[in-house]
Structure formats: C-alpha cells, structure tokens
C-alpha cells in the first residue's frame, strides 16, 4: 500500500515537472515568432500547445533512453523514492530559474537530479556512467551543432535574398514563421515530454509495477497533456529573455533560428537522444545573430545563460542528493 501511495506521488511530481517544463521551455519555442509579430501571443501559445501535444504522442525512444541509460531501475533499492527526490530537486531548480527569467535547461536539471539521487541512494557504482556520459555528450554537442547550422542557414538566406526589398522579405518570412514555429513546438514535444515519460517508467520498473522500459499508454497521454497544459499557461519571463535580450529579431532571422532548432531537436529525437531544447534554441539564435553581424548578439545575456547551463548539472546533483537524504530520514 505504501509503495502504491509513493508511486502516485511520483506520477504527480513527474506531471508537475512536465507542466512546469511546458511553460518554462516552450516559451523558447514561440519567443521568436512573438518577437517578430508573426503570431500574436495568445495564438502562438495555442499553436504551441497543440503541436506540443502532437509531438509528445508521436515518439517514445527518448523516454527509454532516460528511463534506462542513467541507471538500471531494477537494481536500485528504494527506487521510487530515488525518483521522487530527483523530481523535487528538478522542480525546485526549474522554478528558481523561471522566476529569474533564466532559460536554463530542464533536461540538465532532470538528468542531473536523477544521477544525484541515485548516487545518494546506492553510491557512484549504481550510475551507468557510459550511458550518463552519452546523454551529457548529446546535451553539450547539440548547442554547438545548432549554433553552426543557424549560422549557415542565415548566411544562405542573406546571400539568396540580398537584393530583395526589406518590406517584401519581412512579409514573406513572417508568413513562413508560422510554420517554423509550429514545427519547433512539435519538435519540443517529441523530445521534452518523453523525459517525463522516461522518469515515470523508471519509477514503475523500480517499484516493481512493470518489468520493461516500454512506455505505457496512460503515461504517454498524461505526460503529453501535462506539457500541453503547461504550454497554454505561457512563460513570459523566458519569452522576454529569448525574444529580445539575445539579438534583435527580424522575420528572416526568426525563421532561420526556428528552423535550425526544430531540425536539430527532431534529429536528436530520431536517434533517441535527449537534448536541451533551451540550449538548442538559444544557440540557434546566437548562430543566426552571428551570421548577420557578430556584434548584434548581446553576448552579456548569452554569457549569463551559458553560466546557468554550466552550473545546472552539479547544482541539481547536489540538490537531489540532499533531497534523497531528507526523504530517507523522514520516510525510510
């Protein structure tokens, strides 16, 4: 009975994380289209919520990676409590960074928290460091790829449309941004919602409620709905940072950054690799801005964001370790 109560609490925490992820990270997906006035804020949020839901229901490969690459849930004693502590730590960090308008990574927060909680519960040997490092490599390399692709796409656009009048160029790309914003929100759903599916599945296996890492239909639907609802709330602090404090957007640059990040995130989903949508989107914006003019990027804001990215993993690992120690003292 106690185990069932704890697993219910874990599911509630996981869906809460997914909801927070919706308004924390999805703000990134629609910030550029709002900044360039391609979409009105309310329309952009509704579009993002619908596409996020669709994306979340489409794939499950990333969920299996998150559920089994960091550690083997079947080998973790008190695994359900481990997941609960990880989720509490990740939620705390997400709320702190959301409050201060810092587009940190929910993915880093979740992966770091899970690793820290596992270490506190079963020691360093319980962590599958090969799988953990594979995930970290993807989280590190994907922003670099997004920066490069964004730079290339924006350079091509500038070369092809060099002689087109700014008014006509803005009008055409503002129209195209509707589609790239939808694509970006869809890609976000394909990757980010699966992380919550993976963490719930980890808890179900650890608690003996199922044997495989296959994602149950109810897990898939509930995680998709939680993220869509979070998206509908919106994340105006993050929208302000991403949409105006990195570069000054025009429709063409908004189109380029949206397309870049959507392609990189979708590619990662297809190879079943969790990436930080926050990192990818922000790096794509920096790459696009650099292609226009290196000085057009507000590097001070960029440095602040990168600093948040760097500290997220160690802070969430420590926070989750402390949280598990408290949970163990109170409940075990």
TrEMBL record:
It is a multi-pass membrane protein. GO terms for biological process: phosphate ion transmembrane transport. InterPro entries: Phos_transporter. The keyword Transferase does not apply. GO terms for molecular function: phosphate transmembrane transporter activity. It is found in: Membrane. The chain crosses the membrane at residues 45-67, 79-101, 107-127, 139-161, 217-239, 259-286, 306-331. This is Phosphate transporter. The lineage of its organism: Bacteria, Bacillati, Bacillota, Clostridia, Eubacteriales.
